[in-house]
Specification:
By secondary structure, the chain is an alpha+beta fold. It has four domains: about 60 residues, no CATH class; about 40 residues; about 70 residues, Translation Initiation Factor IF3 (2-Layer Sandwich); about 170 residues, Up-down Bundle (Methane Monooxygenase Hydroxylase, Chain G, domain 1). About 45% of the residues lie in helices and about 20% in strands. The chain contains ten helices and 13 strands. The strands form four sheets. It has a five-stranded antiparallel beta sheet, with no helix packed on it. The protein has a four-stranded mixed beta sheet with strand order 10-11-13-12, covered by helices on one side. The protein has a two-stranded antiparallel sheet with strand order 6-7. β8 and β9 form a beta hairpin. α4 runs parallel beside α6. The longest helix has 26 residues. The two termini are about 50 Å apart. The N terminus is likely disordered.
Length: about 375
């Protein structure tokens, strides 16, 4: 930092150190360290530490500015003159303004923040994939992974290859490795979302046709489509978390639901694939309800891109009919296979209808 004067700002929680910020004389944040247990997370690298806490005092520098009003709807805040001079700001120069909840960040160039974190997978066992994929969805660009057994490296590689598009192991030691995103996918998520709808429609249609024609051997291939669905929906959620587009929370919920629906079709396919040697014969009623459920999803996938009140009403009424008739089949069917099919119909149609609420909230 040379010979310039800098201010060290330390933020404390009652039980632990929260963060350290280094600010220059122009009140510009040069470095920010955020403590998470034993980890310092920065925009530049990762440092693992063991904390020793001591009593100490700290200084917080706050620059206050009054908000002025220009015109009927425009508010203005002045920029500190020393900071403006340092960065050669003058009338007409563009600056980047980023909105972060209750904070506005003004910078002379676009801020491309890298989200960096750390994860100890030693005791995660079967939950390791879920942890890594969750960090991918959250938008992490780099993860320092700690492990206690060399054989975990191959499991980590499988985990990132399954759903985390762009993640690669870039550095590896005896007990740590670094996962880094090398192919950012945070562009327009709409194309991937369309592909997700199309893939799910294909999955639903092929599952129905395989069951109707008693082609149970093909159901395993249909179930494999769920893995592609996972990659699509995981990528979309990462994009949403990184870019925070309009209606981000509502779209995120819809994408979560699309993954759940694909899961249910996979479970349905794998159940009957595993029963292929039992001479399964499904009744006409159960198959009819499955097709009606598939049609409901197809209707929603079209409504999502072209609002139609009549189709929304249709979905509500059709859902009630399917639920009532599937519940009756579940109770009265003589065949256990028909009861299983009724169970999946009930689950899927309810999951499909759960898409309607957030869609209306972002549309009306």
């Amino acid at each position: 930092m040379g010979h310039e004067k800098h201010i060290l700002v330390v933020f404390f929680h009652p039980t632990h150190l929260e963060s350290i910020v280094i600010i220059d004389k122009y009140y510009y944040v040069q470095f920010r360290y955020i403590f998470n247990r034993y980890i310092i997370r920065t925009h530049y690298n990762i440092i693992t530490i063991k904390l020793n806490l001591y009593r100490c005092s700290f200084i917080i520098m706050i620059v206050k500015r009054k908000v002025a009003q220009i015109g009927p709807s425009t508010l203005m805040v002045s920029i500190p003159s020393e900071w403006a001079k340092k960065h050669n700001l003058r009338k007409g120069v563009e600056v980047e303004v980023s909105v972060h909840d209750d904070r506005l960040v003004i910078s002379t160039e676009k801020i491309d923040e890298k989200l960096v974190g750390a994860l100890d997978v030693s005791k995660l066992r079967g939950m390791m994939l879920r942890y890594i994929v969750s960090m991918y969805k959250r938008g992490y660009d780099e993860i320092l992974v700690e492990f206690d057994r060399p054989e975990l490296v191959s499991e980590i590689q499988k985990a990132i290859g399954k759903e985390a598009v762009g993640y690669e192991i870039m550095e590896q030691g005896s007990r740590t490795l670094v996962i880094r995103n090398i192919a950012e996918t945070t562009g327009d998520y709409e194309t991937t979302l369309r592909r997700t709808f199309l893939l799910l429609n294909t999955m639903a249609k092929e599952a129905y046709e395989a069951l109707e024609k008693h082609e149970f051997d093909t159901l395993k291939n249909v179930a494999f489509l769920e893995e592609a669905n996972n990659r699509f929906t995981t990528t979309i959620r990462r994009t949403i978390n990184k870019t925070m587009p309009k209606n981000a929370t509502l779209v995120y919920y819809i994408v979560e639901q699309l993954e759940k629906i694909a899961d249910q079709y996979k479970y349905l396919c794998m159940h009957f694939f595993n029963k292929k040697d039992e001479n399964v014969k499904l009744g006409k009623k159960g198959l009819e309800l499955l097709k009606a459920t598939n049609d409901c999803f197809d209707v929603f996938s079209r409504v999502y891109y072209a609002y139609d009140q009549r189709k929304i009403v249709f979905l509500g009424e059709e859902r009630k009919r399917i639920v009532a008739e599937a519940a009756e089949l579940l109770e009265n069917a003589k065949s256990k296979h028909d009861r299983v099919l009724a169970h999946y119909v009930l689950t899927i149609v309810q999951e499909v209808f759960c898409l309607v609420g957030p869609y209306l909230a972002m549309t009306l």
